[in-house]
Each structure stands twice: as C-alpha cells, then as structure tokens.
Amino acid sequence: MKKVVFILFIALASLTAQAQELEWHTDVAKATALSEKTKKPLLLFFTGSDWCGWCMKLQKEVLKTPEFAKWAKDNVILLELDFPRRTPQSDALKTQNQQLQQFFHVTGFPKVWFANATKTAEGKISFEALGETGYVAGGPTVWLDGANKIIRKS
Question: Which of 46, 58, 55, 32 is nearest to 115 (CA)?
C-alpha cells in the first residue's frame, strides 16, 4: 500500500511540475502571431543566460516561480532573447536578438520589455512599447506588481 501511495505521489508531483512549465518562445514571428491571436502583450526577456548573474537571479527569484507561471499564462506571451557566451546559437537567432536589442535600446542585462506586436501588411513586425523593467528585489509579488502597472496602462 505504501508503494502505491508513493507512486501516486510521484506521478502527481510530476504532473504539477509540468503544469508549471512555461513556454518561452525564441522566434519573434511565432510569438507575435500568438500575441495577435490571444490579444496578450509580449514579455521580451533580454538575458545573458550563461554569464549574467543578475539574469540568473531574476530567473531564480521571479521567472521560475509558481506565482510568475500563473500570472504569465493569464497575461503575456513569453519571448526569450538570449545573448549567451558559451551556448551556441544559429546565425538567424543571433541576428534576430541583436535587431531587437537595438530596437528596444537594451544596453544591459537583464532587461524585460512589454510590448504589443502586430504584423504589418508588408509582413514586418511592428511594436508598441508599453514599458520596461529588470531585476527588482522582493521576489515575485513585488516584480509582478510592477509588471501589472506596465501592462494595465496599455
């Protein structure tokens, strides 16, 4: 009987963990299409995933928490724009990320921009910047309060 309870506990825990997994897009075109379809703004996370200490801190304290996962599913489409030093990326992904870094004038990491995105008749993506943030001390509640202020004013 203890074995059955233990197995059920493990199965339930793995389902809960999977439910909290978020889909972070890396392709701006796909994220934009989903943003238009759902009428949710993009959350663009500019990060140096394998070298930026503040980026890792933001991930640990906010972006990988159950509170953030619940909020994100209801409010935004997630787009990660990574600038790693050791992790290989395709040239197309590097170019896309650099273009968005220039467009949003990102000069330091981590930086989080919120924006509405639409595809124009010419097939280009147009952004309406809503606001920006970065690492904020205080955990998910404080960070999400700031994020809500940004996306609610749109």
Answer: 32
